[in-house]
UniProtKB/TrEMBL annotation, chains A, B:
It comes from Ancylobacter aquaticus. NCBIfam families: argP (TIGR03298), PRK03635.1 (NF002964), PRK13348.1 (NF009888). The keyword Transcription regulation applies. This is LysR family transcriptional regulator (Chromosome initiation inhibitor). The lineage of its organism: Bacteria, Pseudomonadati, Pseudomonadota, Alphaproteobacteria, Hyphomicrobiales. It comes from the Bacteria. Belongs to the LysR transcriptional regulatory family. GO terms for molecular function: DNA binding; DNA-binding transcription factor activity. SUPFAM superfamilies: Periplasmic binding protein-like II, Winged helix' DNA-binding domain.
Length: 297, 297
C-alpha cells in the first residue's frame, strides 16, 4: 500500500502552495510535513513536488494527488457505516471542479448551493479556459468539468446540459453613436466590440448569422463575464452576453439588443469521473437540475 | 533597423494564436505571414514563435513584441501631425493591461469607459493573479497593471490608488444556520467560508482583526469576484467582499455584514511603463480619477 499520511502531506503542500501553510492546514509542524514528503520521495525514487513559490506537483505528484482524491471520495462514502462524525479540517473532502466563466455567472451558483445543502463536501472551483478542460480531467487536476466542447475523456462520462443562449447587446448611447443609421456591415466595422479572449468567436458567429459578414470593428479584450457586461453598460463596446444575464437590463432599457432574431446557442456539457461515489452523484444531480432550469435543451 | 512589417506579423500570430487568424487580422495570406515570420527568424538566427495550439512567443519573441508595442505607442502620437485619419484594423493601437479581479468588478469599468471616450485605442485586459503582475510587466506582456502589491518594476512608475475596502458578509439564512448564537470563534470553525484562491488570506485577516483567531471553517474555492458574491447570496459560505459591491445588498437585507466594525483595507497600485505617450497618460488619468471616486485614500 501507498503511505497515505505522506501522500496527504504532498497533496496539502500542492493545494496550499507551501510547506508552512500545508503544516497549518494539517495541524502538524512544517518539519513533519517535510519529512513525510521527502520520505515518500525517497521510497518512490522520484521527486513529487517542485519546491518554489508556489510549490507545484511534478507529473507523478499530480497523478498521486489525483489518486488520493479518488480514494478520499470513496472513503467518504464509508463514513456513515463507520459511525464517524464530521471529519477534521485536514480530512474534509474537497471536489476539484472546472467551470466555464459564463456558467459560473449564470446557473452554476444554484447548483453549488443545492450541492452544499445535501453534501458536507468542499468545492474547489477552477475557472476553465475551455480548450484545456479535457487535459485537466486527464491529468487528474479536476474530477468534473462544465465545458463548451464535447470531447470524450477516458475514465469520464459526459452529459449534455443544454445550451447557453447569447444576445448581442450595447448601451443606448453606444447604439446612438455607432448604429444611428441601422446595424449595417459598414457600421459594424466602425463600432468597437468586446471579446472575452482569443478563443471567443461569438461576435463573428453572430455577425455572420445576422448580417452575413465576419468582419467586426476594433476589439477590446475583457476576460471576465461580469467585466464584459459592465464594460458594455458603460459603453466601451458591444458584446455577446448570456441572455440570462441581460434580459432584465434589456427590459429596463439599460441595454439594447442589436438583432433579437439572431441569438447564438453554445451547447454545454458536464464531464465527470466515472466513480461510484455519493458526492459525485449528488453534484451531478445538482448540476443537471440547475442547468435544466436555465439552459434550453 | 528591424523589419517592422515582419515584426507586426510575429505580433499578430502571438496575439491571435495561429498563422491563419493572424493572416485574417492583417488582411494578407497565411503564406505571406509565414514568409515574414520565417524570414525574420532566419535573419535573427533565432526562433521567435513556438508553433503550437496556440502559437506562443519565445522569450526573444516576447521581447520583440513588447518593443513593437512601445514603438506603436510612440508612433500613435505622430498620427495627428502626419494628418492620417483612423488607422486600419491591423494597425490599431492596443494597450495590454493587467487588472486584478476585484478592481475589474468595481471601479475599473468607469476608467475604461472614460479612456474609450478620449482615446481611439483598444484595451487588452488580462486578469492579474497579483503575484505575477511584476513579472508580466518585466517580460513586456503588459504595459500597465493594477496590483495589490507594491513592487518596484524597472522602467515603470507606481502610483498609489488608495485602498479597496472589504466587508465580511453572509446570507440571512446562512447567519441563522451558523451564527444564531453570535459570531464566536467556535461558530467560525463550523461555518463554511469562501476563498478566491490560494493567495487570498482576507478571511483569516478579518478573523484575526474581529475575533483574534486565525482558524476559519471548511473552505469552498471560487476564483471569480461575482461568482464569489453569487455563492454568498445563495448561502454556500460567508466571504470577504468589496464594500462597493455589497452595500446595496446589505441595505436591502440580502446580505448581513458579520462585524461592521471590522472592515479590511487592501491598498492598490497602478504600475505603468515610463514612456511619454499620450495613450498611456490618458489611461493613467482615467484610472486615477475612477479609482479616486471608489477607493478610500
Amino acid at each position: 500500500m501507498l503511505d497515505y499520511p505522506a501522500l496527504a502531506a504532498v497533496a496539502a503542500v500542492v493545494r496550499e502552495g507551501s510547506f508552512e501553510r500545508a503544516a497549518a492546514a494539517l495541524a502538524i509542524t512544517p518539519s513533519a510535513v517535510s519529512q513525510r514528503v521527502r520520505g515518500l520521495e525517497e521510497r518512490l525514487g522520484a521527486i513529487l513536488i517542485v519546491r518554489g513559490q508556489p510549490c507545484e506537483a511534478t507529473e507523478l505528484g499530480r497523478s498521486l494527488c489525483a489518486h488520493l482524491d479518488q480514494v478520499r471520495l470513496l472513503e467518504h462514502d464509508l463514513a456513515p457505516a463507520l459511525g464517524s462524525t464530521a471529519a477534521g479540517a485536514g480530512d474534509r473532502l474537497t471536489l476539484p471542479v472546472a467551470v466555464n466563466a459564463d456558467s459560473l455567472a449564470t446557473w452554476f451558483p444554484a447548483a453549488a448551493a443545492a450541492f452544499g445543502r445535501v453534501a458536507d463536501v468542499s468545492l474547489d472551483l477552477t475557472l476553465d479556459d475551455e480548450a484545456h478542460t479535457a487535459n485537466r480531467l486527464r491529468a487528474g487536476e479536476v474530477m468534473a468539468a462544465v465545458t463548451a466542447e464535447r470531447e470524450p475523456v477516458q475514465g469520464c462520462r459526459t452529459l449534455s446540459l443544454g445550451a447557453l443562449r447569447y444576445a448581442a447587446c450595447a448601451s443606448p448611447e453606444f447604439v446612438a453613436r455607432y448604429f444611428a443609421r441601422g446595424i449595417t456591415p459598414q457600421a459594424l466595422e466602425q463600432a468597437p466590440c468586446l471579446r472575452f479572449d482569443r478563443r471567443d468567436f461569438l461576435q463573428a458567429r453572430w455577425a455572420r448569422a445576422a448580417l452575413g459578414v465576419e468582419r467586426v470593428g476594433p476589439v477590446h479584450w475583457v476576460p471576465s463575464t461580469h467585466g464584459f457586461l459592465d464594460m458594455t453598460l458603460v459603453g466601451l463596446g458591444w458584446g455577446m452576453h448570456p441572455c440570462a444575464m441581460v434580459e432584465d437590463r434589456i427590459a429596463a432599457g439599460h441595454l439594447i439588443e442589436l438583432a433579437p432574431a439572431h441569438r447564438v446557442d453554445v451547447p454545454l456539457y458536464w464531464t465527470v469521473t466515472r466513480l461510484h461515489a455519493a458526492a459525485l452523484n449528488q453534484l451531478t444531480q445538482a448540476v443537471s437540475t440547475a442547468a435544466g432550469e436555465v439552459l434550453g435543451r
